Amino acid sequence: MSTFILVPGAWLGAWAWEETARALSERGHAALPVTLTGLGERSGDATPEVSLDTHINDITAFVMEQDLRDVTLVAHSYAAVPVTGAADRLGPRLERLVYLDSAPFAEGMRLLDVMPEDVVDQLREQVAEHGGGWRLPLPPFELLGALSSIEGLDQAQRDLLRTRATPQPFRTFEQRLASPAEFGPDLDRVVVACNDAKALLDAAVPTLAFLDQSPWRHFHLPTGHWPMLSRPVELADTLDEVVSSAR
């Protein structure tokens, strides 16, 4: 049995993991979804001051306050940035890091750095016009699809995402990571790549070359960027395989 801490990407709360968490529990694991400050049921805590540091503190406190150990920490999408920062603080409490359709960030990077410049401009327009200058509502699906694949989301799942998504405090996208994790030699490091990410890995993109080297392990989930919505049970099966196949 493993203890999974499931950290959602932008605009999402713990609600997004419900089906995957249930399936992991049925497989004998402890599955603990997290909602970061200002999102999901914590949307009332959103302020212009909520930043990347806030979310790093959220993840760190979630583990420390419950005295969790031998943790498998799962980062979906945007969560790769705060999870990378939190991993540096959690150190030996972590057994495994799983980057779900994401990858660790280097010191000085921010989420906006991995987006095309024209997309960043459109996001800033959304913040200015619809977010009071500090929040980013879930963009229209046309723009969202330019950020990451919406493959696999049927109409009901798109409606769920549109209905339950909450605006993202934009400082979380703008702030740069100050101290990336120094992963210990015994930490199991895993990438679960959906279709677009797998294509990048297969293409040997230079900035991702380190992920092709030991000790990183790869798993493929054939769907788009929101597998907890499009393939929740299959995602649980993959995470279960991540644990059972560990060295």
Description:
With 247 residues, the protein is an alpha/beta fold. The chain has one domain: Alpha/Beta hydrolase fold, catalytic domain (Rossmann fold, 3-Layer(aba) Sandwich), CATH 3.40.50. It is built from 10 helices and 8 strands. The protein has helices spanning 18-26, 52-65, 80-90, 117-130, 141-147, 155-164, 171-174, 195-202, 227-230, 232-244; strands at residues 3-7, 30-33, 71-76, 94-100, 135-136, 168-169, 188-193, 216-220. The strands form 2 sheets. The chain has a 6-stranded parallel β-sheet with strand order 2-1-3-4-7-8, with helices on both faces. It has a two-stranded antiparallel sheet with strand order 5-6. α1 (18-26) crosses α10 and α2 crosses α3 (80-90).
Write a brief structural summary:
The chain has 247 residues and is an alpha/beta fold.
Task: Spell out the key features of this protein.
247 residues; alpha/beta; Rossmann fold; 15% strand; globular; AB_hydrolase_fold; Sec-Metab_Biosynth_Hydrolase
Q: Overall pLDDT, averaged?
A: 93
Low-confidence segments, given as residue ranges, are: none
Q: CATH homologous superfamily - what is it?
A: Alpha/Beta hydrolase fold, catalytic domain
Number of helices: 10
Give the helix/strand class: alpha/beta
Pfam families: Abhydrolase_6
Protein name: AB hydrolase-1 domain-containing protein
InterPro entries: AB_hydrolase_1 (IPR000073), AB_hydrolase_fold (IPR029058), Sec-Metab_Biosynth_Hydrolase (IPR052897)
